[in-house]
């Protein structure tokens, strides 16, 4: 797989390296670090989780530990190249202009490297993928495809939670759905932590 897609993916790795090196000073446990994010953060958290210590994503800090113990991406894009047709057909133009700043045809390897789907291996950390069934921004079908691939390949636990009727950003308000989802995430992370 090629070079990292964006400065954002490198920034996430820099933050992970800092957390791993410093979290104990703030009462955290460097032995259990999880990552999460919604929308573009869902994409970035999945990408970071699946590329631990990948030198191309860590220029200038290649020796830093960026591995994590669990990931909970929410309503993200998991495949920039849309290899199985489950993403939005019109997303390519947005990604080319705003995110990757070059067309897919000009550098398909870079687009592939930006896709968490490209990095799924048996070593994928435990993951809980959450997506709304009525997400009109990023179709749930791509999250299903990503979770299916993880389930087929990963040696670690994979949970896919498709929330019926939920829209993109369903967790922005303290609705019963958002509170129950947060509780489910907590239970997932606690079970992973206890198993490690």
Task: Please provide a written account of the structure.
It is a single chain. This protein has 196 residues and is α/β, with parallel strands linked by helices. Helix content is 39%, strand content 11%. Helix 5 links the parallel strand 3 and strand 4. Helix 1 packs across helix 2 (40-50). The longest helix is centred in the C-terminal third of the chain and has 20 residues, at 176-195. The chain is globular.
Main traits of this protein?
196 residues, alpha/beta, 4-stranded parallel sheet, 4 strands, 39% helix, globular
If strands are numbered along the chain, what order do they take across the biggest sheet? 1-2-3-4
Q: What summary fits the major beta sheet? A: 4 strands, parallel
Total helices: the number is: 6
Mean pLDDT rating: 94
Judging from the principal axes of the Cα atoms, what is the shape? globular
N-to-C SSE series?
HEHEHHEHEH
